[in-house]
Amino acid sequence: MPSSGSAPLMGRPVSISGLGAYVPEKVVTNDDLAAVLDTSDQWIKERTGIAERRMVDQGECSSDLGIVAGREALVDARIDPQCIELVITATISPDRIMPATASRVALECGCRNAGAYDLSAGCSGFIYALAMAAGAVAGGLHEHVLVVGAEALSRITDQQDRATAVLFGDGAGAVVVSPSDGVGGRILGFDLGNDGSGEELLTVPAGGSRLPASCSTVEKRQHFIKMNGKGVFKFATRVVAESAGRVLERCGFDVDDVDLFVLHQANLRIIDSAAVKLGIPGRKVYTNVQRYGNTSCASIPLCLRDARAEGRLKPGDRVLLVGFGAGLTWGACLMEWGGPRAVSNGRE
């Protein structure tokens, strides 16, 4: 049976104190894909809303992207990296099965006093990681946590499969979670859920202990993302509205109180459908799926970075974040966005 838990965040006030993001330089347009697949720019835009996506170069991996985003978030937070006590990297395309991608991110970001681990929750991963970080800071276990969503999805996408090749892109986003300083806004609450009966709708079949790598799994291309698009669409359009409604209710707000709605950037049709079900007008919905495609765990922090840069995300705004993905998992977060931090750990 599907399970879900929704609650306001208790303990001391917690906020996002720094924000960063990074995408690779290489741009892959719909016309680029149409040159090698049975598709077209019009077909892709009509079904997904995507015009282009970014792709890592040879030798680049998820941690390379996450390191750049993490460093930017630390600078934005005006915090010494050695004050970070935990690094969580949300990803479905880790550098390796072990060690954790977060270990390299922590090292290269200068977080030498931090614990580090990876979190796998499909495209809901960033919301899950944010919840773990917020809970740890609110409860006093840590003072500052770096949360990174980093994906090199082109590495696990079958570029011969039109159903997935047109969707996924590479990128990273990061936030620093800290005690709220009074002007830094506040994270209000979360809703996290899972329905394991849908695990086959979105999966990478091989490479784990259930189906270890072999000549057969390579020949059958089972180390790439496999997706039942109709099943995921049906799940997403239902669960987004339900999860968003729960976190709003538990935190004592309703849809009219939301200033900006940021949904995982999987598909423009899903985003539009969810907004309609929730009754959120288009002017309050932020999208950048057109530029980046589906970047899984990176998509929500990428949206926050771009929205702030474009003046769509301002101090005092109430922001509703919702993710969904493999598992099947979902997660929602309600927060009040803050202004610039005046001083953080002695750094002016």
Nutshell version of this structure?
This protein is an alpha/beta fold and 348 residues long. The chain is 31% helix and 25% strand.
Walk me through what this model shows:
With 348 residues, this protein is α/β, with parallel strands linked by helices. It folds into two domains: 3-182, Thiolase/Chalcone synthase (Peroxisomal Thiolase, Chain A, domain 1); 187-284 and 306-337, Peroxisomal Thiolase, Chain A, domain 1 (3-Layer(aba) Sandwich). Helices cover 31% and strands 25% of the residues. The strands form four sheets. The chain has a six-stranded mixed beta sheet, sandwiched between helices. It has a five-stranded mixed beta sheet with strand order 2-8-7-5-6, with helices on both faces. Residues 342-348 have low confidence and may be disordered.
Helix content: 25-40%
The CATH topology of the largest domain is Peroxisomal Thiolase, Chain A, domain 1
Order of strands, main sheet, comes to: 1-9-15-14-12-13
Beta-strand content = 15-25%
For the secondary structure, the number of strands is 15
Q: What is the C-level CATH assignment of the largest domain?
A: Alpha Beta
- Average pLDDT, rounded to a whole number, is 94
Unreliable residue stretches: 342-348
Query: In the residues, how many domains can be counted?
Result: 2
Give the radius of gyration: 19 Å
Structural class: alpha/beta
Distance between the termini: 51 Å
Order of helices and strands: EEEHHEHEHEHEHEEEHEHEHEHHEE
Number of helices: 11
Shape: globular
CATH level-4 homologous superfamily of the largest domain: Thiolase/Chalcone synthase
Name the CATH architecture of the largest domain.
3-Layer(aba) Sandwich
Major sheet size, sense and barrel closure: 6 strands, mixed
